[in-house]
Amino acid sequence: MSGVMKRMGMIFRAKANKALDRAEDPRETLDYSYQKQLELLQKVRRGVADVATSRKRLELQLNQLQSQSGKLEDQGRKALALGREDLAREALSRRAALQQQVTDLETQHATLQGEEEKLTLAAQRLQAKVDAFRTKKETIKATYTAAQAQTRIGEAFSGISEEMGDVGLAIQRAEDKTAQLQARAGAIDELLASGALDDPSGMHKDDIQAELDRLSGGTDVELELQRMKAELAGGSGSGQQAIEGGSDGRQSQQQPQDTPRFDKQ
Amino acid sequence: MIVRIMGEGQVILADGHLAELNRLDDELLAEMENGDGPGFRRTLQALLTRVRDLGEPLPDDSLEPSELILPSPDATLEEVRELLSDDGLIPG
Predict the structure, then answer these.
(1) CA B37 to chain centre
(2) Which of A16, A54, A127, A265 sits most deeply, having the most CB atoms within 10 A of its CB?
């Protein structure tokens, strides 16, 4: 085989071997290290893009759910106006379930946004490091090349050996940074792999939670029904409200609107 | 046989697939040498796709030397040419 794959493999192996071979030529070590950093940077950038894509997808889903929720509320209102309380109840139950999904999605969205910001920052920092490394690498390479060209090799080499200490440190730092970023990328991978993103419906819950949701959903429905009835009945409804909600009829009209949202936090 | 796709990671390939990949790889080299940019892009994508399909990805934390290395999916013909002619590092 003499194609691109083989030739690139040979070049990189040569670089790796030379890098391991007590850095006979620091220029190759530096180039190899730089190449590795570029690869890593690309990986982190792809991570940022992946997270951003997931975030946008969540936003789309949130919008859809919210418009669905609004539609169901309208339907409930119409059904009640037509005297079909059973239909209104069904519409509001569905809406309550949707609102629960919306809340779950919003939590995921916030988490994802946090991760995205962290990753973006990491990518920027890495970019800066890589840029700084490239500059330093080019300087050292130039110094080394110039030194080689000098006739008094002995003198030049004593200078280079000092430089080599710096190179070692630069590479050490780059490697530390690499491990750190890999750990961070791993955390993001876990976040993505946890399935949180693939299951935005929030459907898998334990029995107790499901029951609790059903109960609280039911309460919401009753409250919403009361509110709509009151709206339909106009002024005469306030007397009924007073019985249910306490002495202040006006306040209890206000209450049902806020309560459902508060319950789901 | 371990193959690295630059910027993407490593995959492990059964040796039996080499003949087919070799054909694409030689094609890629010819296109690079002839300066056929669109052909190079097409063949590189085809080759990467085959490698991904046939290979098993290695975990990111494993550290194995690659026997073969492929340019990253977005590499241009010029970039690859530059990599291959880098300071006469090609042994032999």
Answers:
(1) 16
(2) A54
Token match 């073969």: residue? B68
* DSSP assignment letter at A83: T
Contact between chains at A5 and B70 (C-beta distance less than 8 A): yes
CB count within 10 Å of CB A91 equals 23
Task: For residue A187, give how far its alpha carbon lies from the nearest alpha carbon of chain B (Å).
Answer: 13
C-alpha of A237 from chain center: 48
pLDDT digits (tens, 9 = 90+) for A119-145: 888 888 888 888 888 888 787 777 766
In terms of CA atoms, which chain A residue is nearest residue B84?
Answer: A8
ipTM over 0.90: no
pLDDT computed for residue B78 by the predictor: 84
pTM over cut 0.80: no
Measured CA to CA, the distance from residue A174 to residue A33 in angstroms comes to 8
Q: Of the candidates B7, B83, B87, which has its C-beta nearest A8's C-beta?
A: B83
Cα A150 to Cα A24, A28, A156, B27, B56, distances in angstroms: 18, 20, 7, 44, 51
Residue pair B20/B49 in contact (Cβ under 8 Å)? The answer is no
Residue for token digits 């059903």?
A214
Task: Decide the pairing of beta strands B9-12 and B2-5.
Answer: antiparallel
**Mean pLDDT over each residue of chain A, to the nearest integer:** 69
B89 to chain A, minimum CA–CA distance in Å? 6
Q: Which residues of A140-158 are buried (b: 16+ CB within 10 A; e: fewer)?
A: bbeebeebeeeeeeeebee
**CA–CA distance, B71 with A218 (Å, rounded to integer):** 59
